[in-house]
Amino acid sequence: GMAQAGRVLCWALSGGYANLGVFALYGDPALRRALDAAVQLVKAVPIQHVLAYAKVGKWLLTLLECLFRDHLPYLASLDTPTFMRLLELAYSGLQSLDVSHTVNCAASLDHLATFLVSHKRSGLNPPLHAAPAAAAGQLSGWRPEAVESAEAMGALQAHLATNPRLFPDLMAKLFEQLLFAPMASHWATSRPILSVMLAHQTSFGTYQAHLLSTQSPENQRLLGEAFEKLTLDLEPNLEAATRDRFAQRLANFRSKVREFLTL
User: Fold this and answer.
1) Does an H or E element contain 192, and which?
2) For residue 63, what are the CA distances in angstroms to 43, 195, 207?
3) How far is CA 2 from CA 70, 83, 121, in A?
């Protein structure tokens, strides 16, 4: 039942069957109710059960990825415990032995970091006051996308500020998966590394320093060289070409470092 409900909601919220923007335009609460139902469904199943039962996990984690991909401003409007519960599920799923789980969870985290990077650079800030109620000839439920994005950015920053360790811990987990997880999952977990690096720039340096501290002097030299090659002349953007180049560098980094890294 849970799997079927997750599949239906996933298709409805991401299947392209309707222009979802018209719901807010006409003040129709149907979309908000569907999103509320989706979040309640994801929250209702304990994380360990989501990861243990393949059919349930497949659709609930696909639904989670849909929410982070297409409805992040809505997620930002949730209360902090609920938002952080969804992030906890995505974080936990990175460690799943089911590759489809890992793919969905890594993509969810990448959508979040990408949103933070793109809107940080657009200069959007939360508005000081709400936009005026419907101007003449303007439908009451509609708000400019820039206003919605600015409000979402402010809400996300408030959520994330409650856990300053979130991005450093996430960076460490992503690199652990890259270096030590089975080959089948490393492409999925490598994708969010670049977006997380740009969203929280100190997290990469923190992990690099930690990993270096665990190695012998000779390995520290080799590891330092590998990290240097990984980031050499790296363009600080999330364009497709940059992502592809960095993914290839991560694959080379993994292959090289695994030859000498000690645990």
Assistant:
1) helix 183-199
2) 12, 21, 30
3) 21, 20, 39
SS3 137: coil
Q: Is the pLDDT of residue 127 over 50?
A: no
DSSP structure class, residue 159:
H
Give the CA radius of gyration of the chain: 20
Fill in the amino acid letter for 111: H
Locus of tokens 């600080």: 236
Instruction: Provide the sign of the torsion angle of the four alpha carbons 205, 238, 180, 226, taken in this order.
Output: negative
Q: Tell me which residue has tokens 């970091």.
A: 113
Rounded to two decimals, the pTM is 0.87
Half-sphere exposure in the Cβ direction for 25 (13 Å, CA): 6
Q: What is the pLDDT of residue 124?
A: 45
